[in-house]
Structure formats: C-alpha cells, structure tokens
Amino acid sequence: MKIVRLTPEQIETLGRSLARAADLFRHLVDAFRAKARQLTTVLRSFTEFVQRHQLAQPATAGHRRPAWMSPYGPPTGRHR
Fold first, then answer.
1. From the centroid of its chain, how far is CA 73?
2. pLDDT at 50
3. CA atoms of 16 and 18, how far apart (whole Å)
4. Quick one: which of 7, 35, 57, 78 could link to 61 by a disulfide (CB 3.0–4.6 Å)?
5. How far is residue 58 from each of residues 36, 46, 49, 69, measured CA to CA in Å?
C-alpha cells in the first residue's frame, strides 16, 4: 500500500465530509433518544395501568395444596 499526502483541497473536503457525517450521526442519536423516551413513558403508563387494575395475578394465587399432591387426585390403581 502506498501512502500519499493529501492536498489542502482534499483535506478541506475530508473535513467537510467528516463534519457532515458527525452531524448526521448526532441527528440519528437525538432521534433515537426521543423514541426511547417515548417508549419509556408508554411502558411506565402500561405498568401503572396493570398494577392499578390488578390485571396480573400473583403466581401464588389459586388453590393451595401441598407440593406432593397431584392436581388429578389419588392414583386409581396399582402400577403393574
């Protein structure tokens, strides 16, 4: 690979191109940040709605029985 020096015009063009790329990247990051804030607001309001209306039942809700009991009742016969 051969390395050559850049002319002053090429350096100026490169600087403008890098500044433009940085500006576009900044706009992209700002847009992403705004959407992330909107998503956070929506998720927060959704979780508050679920908690307020108790739509999510705790995992322990329901009929309580010992862990060793079968939900289908006792066995009907012997295993052969």
1. 43
2. 86
3. 5
4. 57
5. 29, 17, 16, 21
- Taking only the tens of pLDDT, the chain with its 80 residues reads 676 898 999 999 999 999 999 999 999 999 999 999 999 999 999 999 988 888 766 666 566 767 677 777 776 666 65
pTM of the model: 0.51
What's the chain look like in SS3?
Answer: CCCCCCCHHHHHHHHHHHHHHHHHHHHHHHHHHHHHHHHHHHHHHHHHHHHHCCCCCCCCCCCCCCCCCCCCCCCCCCCC
How many angstroms separate the CA atoms of 25 and 31, rounded? 10
Please check whether residue 20 is in contact with residue 28, taking contact to mean a CB–CB distance below 8 angstroms.
Answer: no
Say which residue the tokens 């940040």 belong to.
Answer: 33
